[in-house]
Each structure stands twice: as C-alpha cells, then as structure tokens.
Amino acid sequence: MSRLFEIRPGDDGLPSPQRRLAVLALILGTLMAVVDTTMINLALPSIADDLAISSARAVWVTNLFQIVCAAFLLVFAAVSELISRRRLYVAGLTLFVLASLGAALSRELNVLLAFRALQGLGAAATLSIGPSLYRSIFPSRLLGSALGLSALVVAAGYAAGPTIGGLVLSVASWPWLFVLHLPLGIFALVLAWRALPREPGRKGGFDGWGALLSVATLGSLFIGMDGIGHGAPLWQTLAWLSTSLLAGICFVGRQRRATHPLLPLSLFAERRFSLAVSASGLAFIGQGLTFVALSFLYQQEMGFTPLQTAWLFTPWPLAIMLVGPLAGRLADRVNPSLLSCAGLVLLFFGLASLALLDAEARVIDGLWRTGLCGFGFGLFQPPNNREMMASVPWQFSSSASGVMSTTRTVGQSLGVALVGAFLAANAPVQATLWAGCAACLLALVASLGRVTLAGEAQARQRQQASRSAVPRCD
Questions:
Q1: What are the distances in angstroms from CA 269 to CA 17, 273, 276?
Q2: What is the secondary structure of 449-460 as a DSSP string?
Q3: Calpha distance 399→65 (Å, rounded)
Q4: Low-confidence ranges of the chain (pLDDT < 70)
Q5: How far is the C-alpha of 390 from the C-alpha of 283, rounded, in Å?
Q6: What does DSSP assign to residue 155?
Q7: CB of 102 within 8 A of CB of 118?
Q8: Phi-psi region of 450 (alpha: psi -120 to 50; beta: other; left: phi over 0)
Q9: CA–CA distances in Å: residue 126 to residues 41, 219, 428
Q10: Model's pTM, two decimal places?
Q11: Longest dimension (CA), the chain
C-alpha cells in the first residue's frame, strides 16, 4: 500500500500527503454508496411491516435508488466537466448525506421513496467520476494499482453490507441504517473539500437534450429489465424497452450533432477502449446473473438454508479483495489485457463448475467454486478498468469514467433480468449459469482482441516515462 504514496521524479498526480486524504474521501464515498444497497435489502421486510405496506411496494425502496443512480451516471460525468469533479463530488456527497437524514426520518412510503431517489442522485454524482478522480490523484505509472484499490473497496462494500445491516437490525430499527451515513458522510465531505484536485471547469454549453435522452434511455431500460426479473406483464416490459431503444437512437443522433456532446462518440473509435467496455459489460452480465441464480440453486435445488447460502457467497468478494490490488499492481508492469484474459478464463471455469453442481454437493463444493469465480473476476477487473481509463486522452477522463460505471450497472442489471427470463420460461437454474459462461467467453474474445494494442501502448508509456524522468544532480 505504501507504494501508492511514494513520489518519483516526473510523477504527475497529487503530492503524497494530499493523495492520502483524497483517496480516503473516495473510499468513504464509494463504501457508503455500495454498502447502502446491500444493507437496505436486508431491511425491506422490516420497512414493509413498519410502514404497513406490501413486500412488492417495499422493493421499490431499493429499486428506485438503483434506477435513478444508473440513469444519471452519464449526465453527471458530463456535468463534472463544467463545474469540476471536485465540486460535483462534494455536491453529490452533500445530497447523499442530507437525503440519508430525510430517509431516516421518513414515516410514509412516498416520502421515503422521494429521499431514496435523492440518495440515488447523490450516489450517481460520486460514482460517475470516481475512476477519473483516481487517474488525477495518482501518477500514471500507478493507475492500475489505484484501480485495484478501487476494486478492493467495492468488493469490501458488497461483502460488508449484509453483515453491517444484520448487526444494526439486531439491536435497532431500520432508520438507523440511514443514520450510519451521517458521520461518515460529513467526514468524507471535509476530506473531499480539502484534498480532491482543484481544476477549472470547461467553458461552453451543456447538452441538455442529450441529458434528457440519456436519462430516458437508461431509466426506461432499467425499468424494463426490472420488469423481466419480477414478472411484469409482457406488454408493459416491451413498452419500456421500446421506449429505451427509441430514446437511445435519438441520443446517438444527438451526440453526432451536438457542439458539446454529453458523451463524445469519438471515445469508441479507440479500439482498446471499445473492447474493454465490451469485455466489462459481458463480464458483469455473468456476475449479475450468477449472484441471483446461485440463490435459487443453493436453496431450492440443493436445500441449503439462507444463512448457509450467505456464507457460500462470501468467497467471491473476499477473493476480489485479495486478488484485485495485486492484479492492479501487475497491470502497471505487464500487459493488462493478458491479465484480464487469464481472469476471464478462471471465471469461465468457475461458472462452469457451479453449473455442474448436483443436489448432493456439500458446502465445501460450493465454496471453492465461488472462490474461483471471485479470483477470476478480481484478476480481470482492475487491469480491464486500467485499459478503459488509460486508452483515452485526459480530457475525456470524466466521460470514460461515466461509461465505466454505466457499463457495470447495465451489465449487472441485464444479468438479473436474464435470470428472471430463464425462470419465467421454466428453464433450470443451471441453464442460467451456462448463459453466464457464454457471456464470459464473449468477454474473453473481446479481451483477446486488444492484447497486441495494449502491449504496444504500455511500451510507449514506459518510453515516455523514462524520457520525462530528469536525473537529479547534487
């Protein structure tokens, strides 16, 4: 970890003391947003009982947060270029903390949903620019290590969320889950205001029509996919997906004409970036569907209890926490695409071994298979994220960051929707896992397509770094 804060001649990024404070601000902001989702999921039955509502309505306490957050990721990435990433991050944290207080004080569902939507807006503001801030905080030579740290934080949040939620609910009521965000949020706000890099905003207009079309595209897409996962009427799901498709076509047309496009389409002209985005989306489809499919496999097919099922999930995020930082560090030294390919191969074999589990399997049989999946995903993600961020010019960092966050969210949600579609068709759970294997293979094809390009780019970066290092004379 100390390597992340050492200073070398020719380094860009922040000075070491400021770097530590800035990273801590990012870690706290990310943890609050990630932990919130998994933590609140556990509280839905309590919220339903306390507010005297049905379980189906209580689910929207989670759904609305996720839909709003996903719909505004690209918008806030573009906004950050106008007002600066530091101001947007601080504003997003402030909104998230204030909305958490409002949610804690809510005693009606509609009021709670309004504050959950505001929380989703705040989370979108911070998550949309997180990867680009890592690129500004750390020297270019440490970008992979920095993104490995980011993967560690996200995995820790997913692993800790259910435990934190369970501990709080064992001694207090559900509003205290929201109260937890207040002290951490205030501390993160102070750090962010003091330490995040200061930069001028871009002069020029904002693509308002593009923003509206982006929200319509992503919002309709997530509502439609949620409908697939929850058995909504077919006509309703098709209407939302058709709206998303139409809005998406209009959005692309708008981006080609706009003076200051919300999402510069020239990003995707860079093959390394496009292939890394494709690999990321496909891999997250595999992860998203596996997390849901395993719940059914372990409990309905294999007869494990909910507690045993929770333990069987644990090796996945734990493996990412162990492997992610190491993979990020290696990506600064060796071809990151090769590392990503190796991770996808392990993920494929892990998913295939899970699909082959039979009803007589023991707990240990599920544990090592889930751990293999987490090991593979942890080896894949930080190097792949490094490719996404390092393959685009500095001025497009915020846009690339927004694409990265949106791709992750879309992939996971599509994976969940696929499970719903398979179950609605009365297909066995194992068939869903084989679909995850297929997504993994497609991701591997995309990752293999950029191995040579990534190696050449890394060689050029090393040459530039050696030229910029000026020998010191005493």
A1: 37, 8, 12
A2: TTHHHHHHHHHH
A3: 22
A4: 1-8, 10-13, 202, 229-230, 306-307, 310, 461-474
A5: 20
A6: H
A7: yes
A8: alpha
A9: 21, 18, 39
A10: 0.81
A11: 76
Q: How far is Cα 125 from Cα 450, in angstroms, rounded to an integer?
A: 31
**Angle formed at CA 85 by CA 81 and CA 86, multiple of 5 degrees:** 145
Angstrom distance (rounded) from CA 131 to CA 150: 8
Is the distance from CB of 430 to CB of 355 less than 8 angstroms? yes
Write the pLDDT tens digit of every residue in 234-244: 888 899 999 99
Q: Which tokens hold the place of 343?
A: 């991770």
149: tokens are: 């740290």
- The first and second tokens of residue 112, run together, are 């709670």
Residues sharing a CB contact under 8 Å with residue 156, sequence separation 6 or more, in sequence order:
31, 317, 321
CA distance 2 to 296: 42
Q: How far apart are the first and last CA of the chain?
A: 30
Buried b (16+ CB within 10 A) or exposed e, 169-181: beeeebbebbebb
Query: If you search the block for the tokens 């751990």, which residue do you land on?
Result: 371
Q: In the numeric block, which tokens belong to residue 267?
A: 């990003």
DSSP 214-262: HHHHHHHHHHHHHHHHTT--HHHHHHHHHHHHHHHHHHHHHHHH-SS-S
**Residue 72: strand, helix, or coil:** coil
| Cβ contact 446:278 at 8 Å | yes
pLDDT attached to residue 102: 95
Q: What's the CA gap between 373 and 354, in Å, rounded?
A: 9
Give me the residue label for tokens 């200073």. 7
